[in-house]
Design brief:
Blueprint lengths: L6 H9 L6 H24 L5 H10 L5 H15 L7 H11 L4 H31 L15 H22 L7
């Protein structure tokens, strides 16, 4: 009776003469580290691990990969920042692990919130003006824009701009540990 080959055996057989370039190896390593970094950060934010554990994991990767790994770490933390949520834990992690001063990020969050507030008020005023022009007015008339497609598009644009500015700050951080 013939042997039944597993999928892994078939793949290994087909790829035995293939080689991986250094660039492909680096890309695979970066992908693996991205997953690890995301798990570390989420575990920290959920209070399942502490900053010392993360610091040990990063240094265990070796000095030659320290810069790349800490850059990934910084970018991933920045992605977790919700400008309308609690940012204290991600900022504490940035400061504790990477030695990054969080004040520029706090300013970006404040600017985002200010921009959203101003745009929201502008759109609410436009809605009040539209209703008033139709003869609908009074203290009981309270327009809402939360379900408005235009507001959703404006908010999404503001949110993407915030994320872009936030991630752009990652390149300015050069000190780790």
């Amino acid at each position: 009776m013939g042997d039944i080959k597993s999928t892994l055996d078939l793949i290994m057989e087909k790829t035995k003469n293939m080689t991986i370039t250094d660039e492909e190896k680096a890309q695979i390593r970066r992908s693996e580290w991205s997953g690890k970094v995301a798990r570390w950060i989420h575990a920290y934010l959920d209070r399942r691990i502490d900053a010392d554990t993360i610091r040990k994991e990063i240094t265990a990767a070796g000095q030659e990969h320290l810069r790349e790994l800490t850059t990934l770490f910084t970018e991933e933390i920045l992605r977790t920042i919700d400008p309308e949520g609690d940012i204290t834990k991600p900022l504490a992690l940035l400061e504790e692990i990477c030695g990054i001063d969080p004040s520029p990020i706090v300013r970006l969050v404040a600017q985002f919130q200010d921009d959203v507030g101003k745009k929201q008020e502008q759109m609410l005023q436009n809605a009040r003006d539209t209703l008033s022009s139709r003869g609908i007015s009074g203290s009981a008339v309270v327009p809402t824009i939360s379900g408005d497609d235009e507001w959703q598009a404006v908010y999404q644009h503001l949110r993407e701009g915030f994320t872009d500015r936030l991630l752009a700050t990652a390149g300015s951080y050069t000190t780790f540990f």
